[in-house]
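We examine the record.

___
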Amino acid sequence: MDYAVKVGQTLDGRFKITDLIGRGGTASVFEAIDCSSGEVVAVKVPHLRCESDPVFYQRFEREEAIGTGLRHPGIVRVIPVECRSRPYIVMERLKGRLLSDKLSEDPRPCVAESLRIAADIADALEYLHSRGVVHRDLKPSNVMLCPDGTIRLIDLGLAKGKGHRALTVFGFSPAMGSPDYMSPEQAAGRGGDERSDVYSLGAVLYKMVTRQVPFPGADPMARMTARLVGDPLPPRAINPEVPEGVEDSFSTRWSAIPRTGTGTPLR
């Protein structure tokens, strides 16, 4: 693969790369020292082959543009960088583990903890929506659980904000989001709005209290179609410890999005 950036390198005379945090299919994330402030930061660098992909490049640019305008304790802090020799995003260095890892490693649900995490996510979403931003890709792998008990929403690559360039994607692809947490409106091919985030939060909470996704199945297209025509199994049928009031709240989340659509592109 074409990683290009290596440990020991200093990007633009400012960010000294000290460690590799992780590598994904489209980008690598490094730990670095910001030589201008001494702060330990995370630097997300796209692989060279991805920089030439117009859709990916739009997504990467928009992630930084939206992120630099946000300041909330539940959303990853993006650090603005004026001059760069290549695309990268600088963020606060987070410690902890992803919510997705917790759900796979801790098989027994804790309803009280799940509700606390969901409330913190809701607070971060409320801030995003008040700023005219919709996350559109809320899922456990985009929620970081920090050691001090706080959470961070991460990865704003699919976020939609006022005044930001549109990202057009036709049909289903990984760039659209996760089929397990995608709202019916997104599954139908439309862009989604604040209600889409509310629905996805309901799907994340469902996963937390049951350890199952709302619409299981081996085929992603079948899982997306299922949410267009029906509702998931009531969570208390899977986990009787879920309070009735919590179960009742799911019906509101499932009905938050219209279940019809015309397949228009993401905006």
About this structure: The longest helix spans residues 111-130. Residues 10-92 form a domain with the Phosphorylase Kinase; domain 1 fold (CATH 3.30.200.20).
